[in-house]
Amino acid sequence: MTIEAANWAYAEDFVEEDRVILEARDVADELGCVPVLPGASRAIEVLAKAMRATTAVEIGTGAGISLTYLLRGMAPTGVVTTIDVEPEHHKAARRTIAAAGFAPERARMITGRALDVLPRLTDGGYDIVLIDARKSEYPAYLEHAMRLLRSGGLLLIDNALWHGRVPDPAQRDKDTTAVRETLKAVREDERLTVALLDAGDGLLTAVKA
């Protein structure tokens, strides 16, 4: 194992995950959805707590792992609007947040295609937008995220390294290209202060001016 790989593995395991999250990861495997990895999950919680977030949009619910981390970081009255095309994902996510001790009204779950749902959400109404769904649609999600975020709001994009494919110029498949284009757009947007964290599968973080 290289030094870089050893450092990554140590950081991923630095804070042990509890039973609720570990069971949700098993459910995610059964459902065939890939959740946010531990290092990025914890970073999401820390960032949400640091900004005392009360409103968030999550694009891609899965089994409710990142949703739970968001809720743990947000203010006690915080609400996450979470979007997923699969009803079974929302059923699993409801069980996960209930096991974590959160009331059902803390998560507004909308089942549908994200690009159909996002236009109905309020401009400038959210502290956080977390993108973690269909990679080919990342550029379109970004456009909506910039509209939805308030001034000072936080943009989070998971899978920003996409299993090491994004940094490799030889990788030009549709999903990798879409993620790469999204990162470029974020980096070049003068409204955003940006950092790319090597946590999980890469977590792009940016604050909107």
Automatic annotation (TrEMBL):
GO BP field: methylation
SUPFAM superfamilies, alphabetized: S-adenosyl-L-methionine-dependent methyltransferases
Lineage: superkingdom: Bacteria
A Gene Ontology molecular function term of the record: O-methyltransferase activity
Keyword Methyltransferase set for record: yes
Annotated keywords: Methyltransferase, S-adenosyl-L-methionine, Transferase
Residue ranges that the Swiss-Prot or TrEMBL entry lists as coiled coil: none
PANTHER family tied to this protein: O-METHYLTRANSFERASE RV1220C-RELATED (PTHR10509:SF85), O-METHYLTRANSFERASE-RELATED (PTHR10509)
Name of the protein this chain belongs to: Predicted O-methyltransferase YrrM
Organism: Demequina mangrovi
